[in-house]
Amino acid sequence: MSVLIKNGNIVTAAENYVADIFIDGESIQAIGKNLQMQATTTIDATGKYIFPGGIDPHVHLEMPFMGTFSSDTYETGTRAALYGGTTMVIDFILQKQGHSLQSALDEWKGRSDNNCVGDYSFHMAVTDFNEETKKEIKHLVEDIGITSFKTFMAYKGALMIDDRQMIGLMEEVKKQGGLINVHATNGDMIDYLVQKNKEAGNRAPLYHYLSQPEITEAEASERFVDMASYTGCPGYIVHLTCEGALNAVRNATRRNQKIFVETCIQYLILDASLYEKDFEGAKWVMSPPLREKKDQQALWAGINQGLVQVVATDHCPFYWEQKLMGKEDFSKIPNGHPAIENRMELLFSEGVVKNKITLEKFVEVSSTNAAKIFGMFPRKGTIGIGSDADLVIFNPNEKHTLSAKKHHMNVDYSGYEGWDVTGKIKTVILRGKVVIDEGKCLAEKGNGKFIKRSKVSQLI
Ligand code: URP
Ligand code: ZN
Ligand code: ZN
Known about the structure:
Blueprint (H helix, E strand, L loop, with lengths): L1 E10 L4 E9 L2 E6 L8 E4 L4 E4 L1 E6 L4 E2 L2 E2 L4 H10 L2 E9 L6 H12 L6 E7 L5 H14 L3 E5 L10 H14 L2 E5 L3 H13 L6 H5 L3 H18 L3 E3 L5 H11 L5 E6 H5 L23 H13 L4 E3 L7 H4 L19 H10 L6 H15 L17 E11 L18 E11 L2 E5 L2 E2 L19
Parallel strand pairs: 1-4, 1-5, 6-9, 9-10, 10-11, 11-12, 12-13, 13-14, 14-15
Antiparallel strand pairs: 1-2, 2-3, 5-16, 7-8, 16-17, 17-18, 18-19
Helix pairs in contact: 3-4, 7-8
Bound molecules: N-(aminocarbonyl)-beta-alanine (URP) and zinc ion (2 copies).
């Protein structure tokens, strides 16, 4: 199979130019003006942008969480990702406390093997670090290609580890050439505030927000970067939402630490006023919660300053019926919202069209930096000779409206119902195969490959 894409405006993190792309098999073979190769398929991309396939390094598919499962399966979630121009996702395996990392890997493979439509990898969430767990890290990094280890400083009693475990894990992960990811909020403080609110009879979704004030995130982020500095372990803060936490990172970079930051599309464009909608606010109950306008400004600035390298989703969808588990008690609302399909279009529309970021920055934060940080560059995350032919052909002028009636995520509402966006994904190519074309998915489950990742890259 070969594909020739003619006259597209190719955009990478570094440049932006009009040329043709020739794909043979799974990878890009040539880029240039007026390529004359014979191809099985020719696509005219005149007037369109061609981006590297999006990489969303923060998704939760079919994840057991808060007494239920997130509602997108590996099939529906990776298919919806493709519709949204995301050709690869990194999902999270959760170790069960008292059990091995291997048993968690086996459980997650049982759900994901042969079921993904798009490419995927895993982070391993270590929820119980001990002498046995420590021995498993090397094997995961070297043999399985899982090189990033997630930690939770919150979700007390379920996923949270203490600082003693954090330091031990950091030392081992550093030794093996990996990276520590963190959900950085102060679990003890949050636990206290949740109880206090419940005892006062405050049961609405608004109190989820009020139980996780900015300080809980700023404090934990600072503690995390200090521990990472002490151990010398590279760190990646997931879903950073606020100015206070970003300032902790700003301080850390003064001592030349390797700390990376991810925010998510919702924190850039939605704010905490949505929690004032009574129980409807449950649609946006996530941790950390949505913040204030001043935090959105800090995050956009952080992206442009290079302090925030990645815009992900933390896609963790639940049907409305699942959200109703917390009708009488905000602490029982499953945390998370759907966005895997919307990230690229929203970021383009709210970021590039509104002049908050450049086209090149769009590519950097939606694809290239994740590939670099997580050990996949230049196979993924760019448009270059020899790279996987993961491409998005994008009409920058087409306007449309987001709605649950049209989306492909397995969830019965949208966090962005009625949002008007400018720019539409037209064609998506994954490893040389056209997988999305004009609103149709042409790939089946099993098409997605598990991508073995390298040790932490020195490229960024
Ligand atoms: O609310 C969220 N973020 N749900 C998914 C789990 C996590 O903390 O990332
Ligand atoms: Zn989290
Ligand atoms: Zn998450």
